[in-house]
Amino acid sequence: MTEIKTLKYSIVESINEPNLNFTEIKLKISNDLKKNMYITHRVIKQQLHIQRQGNANTKTRSEVRGGGKKPWKQKGTGRARAGSIRSPLWKGGGVIFGPKPKKYTFKINKKERQLAIRILLYNKYSQTTITQNFCKNLKKPNTQNILESLNNLGIQTKNKNRVLIIVSNKSKALYLSIRNLTNIDIICANNLNTLSLIKADKILITFDALNIINTIYNDKS
Prior knowledge:
- There is one protein chain.
- The protein is of the alpha/beta class.
- It has 2 domains: about 1-50 and about 110-215, Ribosomal Protein L4, Chain: A (3-Layer(aba) Sandwich), CATH 3.40.1370; about 55-105, no CATH class.
- The chain has helices spanning about 35-50, 110-125, 145-150, 170-180, 195-200, 205-215, and strands spanning about 1-10, 20-30, 130, 165, 185-190, 200-205.
- The strands form 2 sheets. It has a 4-stranded parallel beta sheet. The chain has a two-stranded antiparallel ribbon with strand order 1-2.
- Helix 4 links the parallel strand 4 and strand 5 (about 185-190).
- Helix 1 packs across helix 2 and helix 3 packs across helix 4.
- The longest helix is centred in the N-terminal third of the chain and has 19 residues, at about 35-50.
- The chain is elongated.
């Protein structure tokens, strides 16, 4: 059975200022815990499978260079019979049943993927912070400015917690400022995915990005 959950967020500008503004989003998720875990697991598994290159390759006896000539005659030498030096029994020969390039992906329905993201957004509610203006006036890359802004919002970065920043539009200056920080990731709201959400210990969402998320993942059916 599904139920519409309302998440009410306070818009934080600074931990030293009172939170007077609030916003909310509505997410349609299931009350069945096992079903939620199953859907989330399937979507994450599919995303991890897509990342696999699948390019491991070995050559069979027909693909190894050489071996066209019979090493010695069939009878009379006292040796075991052999037809090619590229037999899998020989050093430098082909490989029997070795790996071949393959695709590991499998199909996930669009509604399954959206449901998994709604489940994770709901589960990560207590670790989520909403802010109105996050480095909007950033003209050039400045990593120190990013760290100070996060600390000002109450998000500690020195304890190596993974922080996910969700923005409506990823500017070049913002991307270059965060690129050097190993425990901080930035993603656009349109590209939100389950793997980024589940890895994050803290989530920072801008107000504009939250509106995009509410538009995309608010199931009105």
